[in-house]
Amino acid sequence: MPEAATTVKANGTAVPKITLYTNHLCPWAHRAHIVLRELGLPYEEVIIDLDRPREEWYLKINPRGLVPSIIYDHPLVGPQIITESAIVSTFLADAHPSPSFYLASRSTPTAALERARMAFFVDTYTSKVSPLLYASIRAEALQEKEEKGKELVGVLEKEVEPLLKGEGEGEGKGPFFGGGERITLAEALTAPFILRLYSGANDTLLPKSLLPALEKLPNFNKWAKAVMKQESVTYIWDADTVTKRTEERMEKMRKEGK
Question: Is pTM beyond 0.85 here?
């Protein structure tokens, strides 16, 4: 088992040392990478092979064997283990609040409201859209993929498009959630799935018809394209490898009757 990270000094101030247990092909772990990059937090990385049984040392860190996990070592509390992607990401954002990324809960009179709106947006995407994304990927016949794809676009239009109304419109309005000029925690928690939605439309994973259909959602499409241009979102992203590995995994699952 790797040793827990130790604290260091930056300009005379004690700061946490972070060890991230991850896999670059996992969308859930990708969330933590985006948050760390956006917050400018240095971290040590340990890659976990998800194609083999987890080693005993890692199960002591995360008994579920999932990624991401972090060890957050701060002089006030010592090394602490935190698991589950949304919890890891929100913890980091809470521990290092940023006016543009994620406001501290009492930093402004409207901070709690803005945080609640972000949480609702992420919950909507995760609970309404992501299941249809994976249903389309798992479908064997192209016709079934097309049907699930149409259902996905319909949910985006009904549930997500209205939540992005006004982004990028008017003076001082940025393209990101809430009209920001930089991405927020809302983007960090959804971007890995946006990447897979757009890059997977090859008729093998997802139907090609998805792309022109997404173009007809002006708020969502403009927002998604802005998100996918961000360095914090793409610095570990390898579309070709993710697509290939996903295709291989789907083929294996079909052969095994799963």
Answer: yes
Q: What is the pLDDT of residue 134?
A: 96
pLDDT over threshold 50, residue 115: yes
Burial of residue 57 (CB within 10 Å: 0-12, 13-18, 19+) is exposed
CA quadruple 253, 29, 207, 210: dihedral, nearest 10: 160
* HEC sequence for the chain: CCCCCCCEEECCEEECEEEEEECCCCHHHHHHHHHHHHHCCCEEEEECCCCCCCCHHHHHHCCCCCCCEEEEEECCCEEEEEECHHHHHHHHHHHCCECCCECCCCCCCCHHHHHHHHHHHHHHHHHHHHHHHHHHHHCCCHHHHHHHHHHHHHHHHHHHHHHHCCCCCCCCCCCEHHHECCCCHHHHHHHHHHHHHHHCECCCCECCCHHHHHHCCHHHHHHHHHHHCCHHHHCCCCHHHHHHHHHHHHHHHHHCCC
Quick: pLDDT tens for 47-105: 999 999 999 999 999 999 999 999 999 998 999 999 999 999 999 999 999 989 998 87
Q: Are 60 and 37 in contact (CB under 8 A)?
A: no
Chain-centroid distance of CA 105 in Å reads: 22
Q: Is the pLDDT of residue 205 over 70?
A: yes
Closest C-alpha to 15, from 24, 23, 6: 6
Alpha-carbon distances, residue 216 vs 21, 64, 222 (angstroms): 38, 40, 10
How far is 159 from 207, CA to CA, in rounded Å? 21
